[in-house]
Amino acid sequence: MKKYSRREFVGKSGKYAVGVALGIPLVCNTPLRAGEKMDSWRDYRVSGLKPMMAVASKGTPESNLNAALKAIGGLGQFVKKGERVLLKPNIGWDRTPQQAANTDPELVAEMARLCLAAGASEVLVTDVSCDWGPNCMKTSGIQAAAEAVGAKVFVPQNSDYQMIDIGGIVGEWETLKVLYQVDRVINMPVCKQHGGTQVTLNMKNWLGIVRGNRGKLHERGIHQSIADLAQAYRPTLCVLDATRTLMKGGPKGGNLKDVVKRDIIAVGIDDVALDAYGTELMGKKAEQIEYITLAAKKGLGEIDYKKLKPVMVRG
Asked: Taking the model in full, what pTM does it have?
């Protein structure tokens, strides 16, 4: 299997942009094979999809997800029979769903169910939690909900990591190996406030794939670190959970008075655009968030999400 250097990857990313413009289907992912060194970026996207973004509201997490996916052509464009799929929700905190610090469990379970119904051979769910992992999986409700529909939820152990050269100011870091062992990755962050970066959405959710002293990433430059991670890992699909938004006290939260019930789910293939939309939900502008502007300057997506003409539907 051919491996790609970063220079070759950037070239492929350019071809991806052309593919989107021309509507040409393109699968860039190259799953890891036995014995292969894990030192390259990963692109799990499928191009040629229009519309590129949809927002569903006023329904349940499940109905909003289904309505939004239908508006962009259905999950069958993203997940094929026999593929292994990784769901990457935010499960960072020992918090209940009502506290809005983690992705809604019903949303994660419905996505897992839909992937399996589309023919996925396996659906994996994990995160590198900030609080003690087993508690986060349980208290968040994600483990029970996802396992009930047939997904495999796991707390990463030492053997689940390997040093990966992510590049940029991140450099080499202990990263989840499962990212190199699946065919599709669906990023599923919760939309909330963050004390260090103002908001945490799709791109910042990539901090949940590395372990160790993540405080060093803040010291090196957290916004640039997020943009570097977003360049290294391009998800198949982004599902932004704004069922509840934590408006203050993030990222951990805890006070129910800081939570606003919105009942919104946004889906798309442009994580910069999705983050720009989520930032708006949080009462800010994308241009105020440094990592979003850095990612846009890298050519990772469209900061003016309205240019994508997102479809607005009722869940």
From this structure: 0.88
